[in-house]
Amino acid sequence: MSEAITVVLVHGAFAESASWSGVIPRLTEAGVPVIATPNPLRSVTTDAENVRRAVEGVEGPVLLVGHSYGGAVITEAAVENPGVVGLVYVAAFAPDHGENALELTGKFPGSTLGETVRAYPLGDGTNDLYVDRDLFPNQFAADVAPEEAAVQARTQRPIRDFALGEGQPAETPAWKTLPSWFVFGDADKNIPVEGLRFMAERAGGLTITEVPGASHSIMVSQPDAVVAVITEALAHLAR
């Protein structure tokens, strides 16, 4: 592939685009075009449309990188999207048709996320969810410096509960047709590591990288590990 591949980063629930602030400078220093697109966290369907529009605004091929719930979003956004050439899942969901984030979180034991989530009603029968700000550092970012984790807690974007319970729309999710790479930590308290392994192996990830001791906020605590996987994906796609 002769054209430069642009990396489009998609954040997950209880996070925002600045969660990629350790990844972006490393990629730009290596000469890789990269953008982080906002993720509204309203529903898989509408969030995926948002990512599709971001991809349409990029000249040339795109490597989609999703964190956590952002994995479900890129899985949908890449379906029949000729601009997307590969997928990288960062501690992320890779759902099959009809599966949702809540179902996949509970498929294997170990998640303690539910105990830390708080809700407030939106007036339409759904709720916005956020992680208790005092509990966030230990739950979400245990290997991140406390002061940085505290900032993450206070800048998190809430997710609409409908989004976490919405079944994956496409009958053929994008990981069945595009090459994929996976990176996650073995100390993730949000998505059990067995679940992350299950999704990565089912998708036939070209590489599956486990980072010892890394939390759900692996892109914050271990940006070098995440960039290494993205770089590996770019090298593969450039052949």
TrEMBL record:
The keyword Hydrolase applies. GO terms for molecular function: hydrolase activity. SUPFAM superfamilies: alpha/beta-Hydrolases. It comes from the Bacteria. Transmembrane segments: none annotated. Signal peptide: none annotated. Residues 7-228 form the AB hydrolase-1 domain. Keywords: Hydrolase. The keyword Hydrolase applies. PANTHER family: AB HYDROLASE-1 DOMAIN-CONTAINING PROTEIN-RELATED, ESTERASE_LIPASE_THIOESTERASE DOMAIN-CONTAINING PROTEIN. This is Alpha/beta hydrolase. It comes from Agromyces salentinus.
